[in-house]
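Two proteins were folded this term; both appear here.
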Amino acid sequence: MGYNLSIPNISSKSIKVRDMVFSVLAFEYPLTAKKVYNRIKDRYKSPVTYQAVYKSIKLLEDEKCLDCSNNEYKINKSWITDMKKFIISLESAYENKKSLNIENANYNSLGKDVNIVNKWSYYSSEEYIFEMLQKTIKDSKTPPKSIFIHTHHLHHPLIYSFNLLNSIFSKYGNIYMLIKGNSQIDRWCKRAFEQNLNPKILLGTNCTNNIEYFIFGDVVIEIRIPSSYWKQLNEFYSRYKFVSTMDMQELYLLFQKNVDVQLIIYKNNKLANQLKEEMLSKFRQVIVSKNKLKFVSFDLNGVLTEENTIIELSKFTDNYELVKEIITNQTLGKKNMPIAFKEISKLIKGISLYDIFKYANKIKLMDGAKELLKKMKEKKLKLSIITTGFSIIANIINVRLGSPFYKVYSNNLEFVDEFGKVVTQKYVMDAIKKNDIITMKKLFTNGKIEMVINKEEDKSKILKSLLKDLGIKINQAAAVGDTMGDSDIINTCSKEGIGIVFNPNLSLLEYANHLIDKGQYIIISESKNLMNISDLFK
């Protein structure tokens, strides 16, 4: 049976009718609806009507928060018991963040949509979850594309028919399963599962202690069972080396055993995405070790540098606010890239190459950039910069970082000399390499940009071409980006390789969570230190 766990507010002066009902019945019970109404009028001096009080009482009764006997109401003891269990569970989660054994799970973000369901056996708890999964697919206009499970042992092919498993799991495009056990039985179940449903399964992950999880959409289900039960299950799995010799009746009885099972069901998008991302990180580690990551592409602005260099460059003109607005909208995906850069080119006309050169040598690099790139270079990884930023700045940043980048792809500012003649990019770069200050002071932007990267898809095309030239497969590549300008290259890499969303703006963060829900391999790092993604490149 499920109980609503919205915690009543009984201390504030401005509270809802249902909370006033709770406040009255917390100290005096049982009471008729009329008496509850009178107590509310006396205590709160509220203009609330009897009809509103009665409606709230009946809703609370429907939600199993109140009991009614002989037209008198009191708070449901089962609700109180479950509320107590929930508070204890929540307290434990706050005090011991490793209760999930998923290091970064953030219980501080739990919403109000929490329910506790009590079941009498492991089997009955899974039946309940299976019903939820089927109902979600049936009722949702946009059902979840993935399901994430971590559990002590694989058992589904032994307990349930594949007709049932197919009817439930085949509707979810991607199935990810982290399994603590790695016994012969677990391995047999893994093979059986893979032959029928093609899930992604990792055994021996040590990802859970006494809690199991089902995660789909924005729903997180915790399965809590006493540790003594897991000990029995572990003992059974370790006893048999062959499935053919296993005592199936004993296994069925174990799953049907009368045991106190508690399902805590959270409807919380942020928590669900966080746990999915943590689970996917386990699979990424396997990809990195199995496929031997060989290539990483970096964006420039907001990834290798703390600031957006295009916006900052506009400070040499009177158009800073305009450029900032255009770039902000473009990086959020609200403005078309070609249109944005066409507008910008005219707004940054007349800046000397010397001013750009001086600025590029003072740009604050992202924390951890030098350390990470040094580490990656030692690992002999091929690195590139693929950015909509400007080539002059990108190349200077490359030199300042120790020239770790094999290739730099960027957009080119056009320059004219003192006679108004357009000069070549080679002429510009030669002046920079020779530190020819006299020449640099005579060159100025002419209000045009040569667009090497004119739309988001161009980054992916460059990546694929680079990989082809290097003889590297896409599943051996990663892309690091921070805005919607990087969305396509991150999507491309994360299908088989890894997409790394670093220091993201809100639009890319939402997009990354969408890719995670599709089962793509995404790492999200909301910090501003690149060393926080260094574990990928051990």
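Next, the second protein.
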Amino acid sequence: MKLNIDGICERCRKSRDKGDKQPYLMSDGNEMDPGEVPTYLPELSQAEEMLIARAHVHVEAKRIRGHQYQYTGHTVCFMNNTTKLYNTLPLLPHQLDVLLLRPANHSHNEPQFRKQFVKDFKVKRSNVVQWLQYLKRNSPAYRDINIDFGIAQQLPDDGDLLDQVTAIVDSPQDDSGPVNAVPPVPSEQADIGIDLPPVSTVVPNLLVEQSERDILTLHLDAQRQHLTMPSLQVTPIDESRSQLLYSMAYPTLFPHGKADFSLPRRRTVTLQQWSEHLIRYKDGRFGSHPRFRYMVFNQIMRDHVRKASNWLVKKSDLERELTVEDLRKALEDTEQSPLLSKIMRHANTLAGTRPFWNNKRNQLMAYARNLDCNNLFFTFSAADMQWFDLQSHMPRFEDYLTGDDQLRKRIIRNNLQSRPHIAAGWLYRRFELFKQHLLKPLFNMTDYWHRYEWQVRGSGHIHGFAWFKEALAADMSTPESRASFAGFWSQSATAFNPDPYRCPDAIHPSSLPYEEQVNTKDLLTACLNCFQRHTICTESYCLRKNKSTGQKHCRFNFPRSFQETAATTRDVNPQYWMFTPQRNDTLLNPYIAPVTMGWLANTDMNPATSRRAVINYIAKYCSKAEKKSESYTNLMRQVLPRLNEHTPLFSLASKLMNKLIGERDWSAQEVCHILLGLPLQQGSRQVVTLDCRPEHSQNTMVTIENDEIAAGQSVLDKYKSRNIEIEALHDVTLLDFLRCYNFISK
């Protein structure tokens, strides 16, 4: 943290900016310290906190894991932007916005199903009453509530609410079910006896007019079982911002009503800064809370959509005057509507959405076109976060050190779901250090581009490219050049297993303490046989049907033939040449020994043989969106019938951007990655886009940073406004100006 002699960390010292501003931005003097939770207050379950919460802003659907299909338990928060406020507490169980989705032909009362979520639904009456009495005395958000002790008497003395939660059948065969299924765990890979923790994700909702009723109707209309919703009185979230909304929704996080985002402050703090500070708070309660992160994320994304839509309307002089009918005609007359393209360009600042990744793909294509083909593709997995150094920052580390392999796996998986902010922050930090201290010096890396991808179950991956100064440029034109290429890369990459018949070690190599992570052939062999071999093919992961033959095959082309020497061949993929290393193990993924032993998790590193191969990889893996989705045109057609007559352009833009954000589940780790202010993509080059249309037809440059939207100069404007008094800039051409000068403000 780099504390100074006064105990002030570097982040707070930097926040003073110029002029030695007071108070520190993240200090108690600026209403940024929520205070500690008194130790005598009991720790509440999620159900207990919901029963005492004044504000309710989302609906939870909990999918029970079915042992027949081995689905991981899955909790999805469906966000809504209307708030239910209660003045009399506690609530009764039937008032909680929770749905339990159980497998067909099984009761949620069966012991193997109850144990998955019973902890979340534990209720002890005395805990509820004690917290309400404390909040009424100490929190401004609870000062005027009525505590109904008669209702409290109806709560269990010490039991659970699973029998009182609405349960509906969730059939795995029904693709139209209410939530996206977590991919099933193959039976061969399932760890017998290990209780997998529920996976947590969110489906954002950014439109004020969509209430709980709309959300539940949308996600439950495919269910055969009828569900009657009670009448609700709702308040839009925008109208609640003058209230201590977060203190009302999450009382265990804000027991004193301090540091709520709605409080006035001497120094302005954006929602992004506020959430990043609290996610990092010292006791970890904000980062580990299963619902707080989703509300903040939903509000941040909604603010971005609103500002981008407002900016679009402000700068669209012609379209701003169009009626709903005019917009429909303008959008339906062509598949390449200029207005639709303009909306998508404004949406490319929304992190993690399809327009965002399409923009990143275009930037990566610029790397591929302008840099030499002396690079390799890479994928770094996270080994399900089993690293020793990561677990040292997680709960139950002492138990992790002394426990057997089964206990370690249970601790690791629980930590991954309960501390997603640590997992997300550590993966980013680990790869940054790995890139700086191993990849750059080992290969003399000159350029790079990479992105972070988070699976629904919480495990992360890094996909990207690295360019090396001494690497031999790809030339597949002659047998001699191909042999030289193979000979160069065979010095680093291989598929030779020192002991292909060795069984995986009892302890995962990534879990070894520092003193046992030694650079020996024995550890390398343990790593290869534990996580570098492709031992199981499943339909949910890699098996694909050949359209010509109808036969299923592994999309990674395993098993592969033995090979005595490295070569370049088209046997693996007839479309382009591929480097194939020496191989004595048909299931071993090629590896580079220092990289494997340094990263201590599965890696995939393959040298590029042509720009065509690079472009193919870009399209398939490196900059793809998180899921295959509908076309922009289809999404636009879905929102057209529901446009607001008074502000049609703003309505169109905001609804379409909301569709883009809410078209998939967002994992807890990905949400934390964004809330921590970490970039989803990084590169060594600045990609400059030059608009070659006439100046009057060009778009205004738009950026969203720290919750603010702003206009900037185009690169042409910057060229025209350059200081021509400087001799080097007087006669410089536009192309040389873009290529050779850094005109980014510091």
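The chain is about 35% helix and 15% strand. The mean pLDDT is 80. These notes refer to the second protein only.
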